[in-house]
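agent: user wants the structure for G domain-containing protein from Ostreococcus mediterraneus. delegating to structure tool.
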Amino acid sequence: RANRNEMLRASTSTTCRSWTLRASRCAARFALSPRPARAVVGRGARRIATTHAAAAGAAGGQSSSSPPGSRAVRDAAPLVDVDEDARGRARAGNVRLVQWYPGHIARAERLLKEQLKGVDAVVEVRDIRLPLSTTHPEIGAWCGEKTRVIVLNRADMVSDMERARWVSYLKSIGETVVLTDARAGKGVRKVKELALAMSEEINAKRAAKGLLPRPVRAAVIGYPNVGKSALINRLVGKAACASAPRPGVTRDLRWVRIGGDLDLLDAPGVLPARLHDQRAASRLAMANDIGEASYITSAMAAAMVEELKRLETWSIIKPALVKRFKLDNLKLDIDKMSGEEFVKRFADKTCGGDEERAGTRMLNDYRGGHIGNFCLELPPHREKN
Ligand SMILES: Nc1nc2c(ncn2[C@@H]2O[C@H](COP(=O)(O)OP(=O)(O)OP(=O)(O)O)[C@@H](O)[C@H]2O)c(=O)[nH]1
Ligand SMILES: [Mg+2]
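agent: tool returned. relaying tokens verbatim.
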């Protein structure tokens, strides 16, 4: 109990995340049963539930000894449901966007739809690792007849062949496509050239009506963390918009002038409040295009292994995975293991059995390109499973 109190005292000055880690590590170290947490609604609920699940797992699943009807049990009651739900999801490796979908996205979607009425063009940025899962199902309706350019960003994160394949597929269905690596600034000039060509066309029409020229107005839209702000920063040549490697960085709509010819709207990443396709949702989670509060890290890492095994590039990914995770001497046959088993073995070997930490490492390694550069999706006519 003294240790548990120490844990709780320490946690009061820390963030929810560090509390989650601290609680599970302390529980594992001292083999404690976790203290029933108070019912929490909203943002903190899942984290606390996960903490509880992790701590309970680490402590051998012991349950509280509080008598039925006591305050501790009443306080903990709703947590049990959330907890069960979290365990269910852990098994399924599912994504529950409802746990993360931040309020600013709903607001941004509303404001964006207003702004879209007044723009000349839409630059839709997609993550080239998953070009189908990073397009909003309603984008066609939002854009209407407006010119739309699809920017396949993160081109550095896939192979040359996959890049060419996606460009040719999207062109074959009549889209205008540009490949970019917004971090290094590659391909960005092409976006500007398209905008300038549009500017000339618009201003020629205005001149014919006796109107003064004006800059082209384009909205840069897309899912969270696909690189919208980084692209604008490259176009403007300075860090005009906040950009960081996590979803949900841009929270407000903001116009940025590029030279005298182009105005770009930087918008928060917008995605549907519910993702019905769990596989697409898992891919978004793997690529870090949705917030980590919507999934359980270890379960997502397990789902990632399953997903990678289904890729046609698996024969190239597999040795890279084994090498990166230093699993060579374990002589594991990954093909015969489930994703969960893989995470467990990796956790035992490198993280003292802490599967959440192992999951974080695995996802970060994938996101950082340390197990190779490859697409998670194939164009529809090539996708087999
Ligand atoms: N490797 C690589 N990283 C990129 C690329 N484009 C952007 N990034 C990185 O991805 C992270 C996210 O970029 P942002 O521009 O903040 O993404 P965003 O779409 O504006 O994200 P939200 O504002 O959250 O919707 C940043 O750390 C960028 O440096 C790219 O082409 N390649
Ligand atoms: Mg942004």
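agent: one observation worth passing along. Residues 11-17, 29-87 have pLDDT under 50 and may be disordered.
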